[in-house]
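Design a sequence for this backbone.
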């Protein structure tokens, strides 16, 4: 990846603990533009409002995070960028959603995997293995980002078992990052 690097001994605070930064790199305009185009193709035009933003890549012990104007809006999983819960919320993303009922909210909020009985709706285009955004039913606010363990239609039809493995969620280390 072509980028300008500014290495800094830096830490980010979350809930009294610290995330140690291994590297912090400002991405070049061409790299940033390619990332924005990729995210638009996956999640729609809502992402296009980031075209004039500054992107920085931060490598932590556990995660690689993309800061957009200083906010942790994307993280990297297995070489693929995906919106953080805060990113999905701020960009108001409407694709690749899994909707859970109010009974599941407190469990998802605490980092639990998403069980099929709690799912009321899922994007029919979701394929097993893809990353999805888990939202609550009433206001469609993001609660978690996870990996689909089954296709979208199967999530809604199944009466038991895990449908989504939670990766990050509201209230976790990334959500609570202070920059």
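Sequence:
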């Amino acid at each position: 990846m072509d980028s300008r690097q500014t290495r800094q001994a830096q830490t980010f605070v979350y809930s009294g603990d610290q995330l140690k930064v291994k590297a912090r790199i400002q991405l070049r305009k061409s790299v940033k533009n390619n990332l924005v185009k990729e995210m638009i193709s996956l999640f729609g035009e809502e992402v296009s409002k980031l075209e004039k933003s500054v992107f920085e890549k931060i490598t932590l012990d556990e995660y690689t995070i993309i800061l957009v104007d200083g906010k942790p809006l994307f993280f990297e999983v297995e070489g693929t960028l995906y919106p953080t819960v805060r990113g999905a919320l701020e960009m108001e993303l409407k694709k690749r959603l899994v909707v859970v009922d109010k009974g599941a909210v407190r469990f998802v909020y605490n980092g639990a995997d998403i069980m099929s009985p709690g799912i009321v709706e899922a994007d029919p285009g979701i394929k097993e293995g893809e990353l999805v955004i888990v939202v609550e039913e009433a206001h469609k606010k993001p609660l978690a980002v996870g990996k689909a363990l089954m296709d979208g239609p199967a999530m809604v039809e199944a009466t038991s078992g895990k449908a989504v493995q939670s990766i990050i969620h509201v209230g976790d280390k990334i959500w609570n990052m202070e920059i």
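The CA atoms of residues 55 and 68 lie 5 Å apart.
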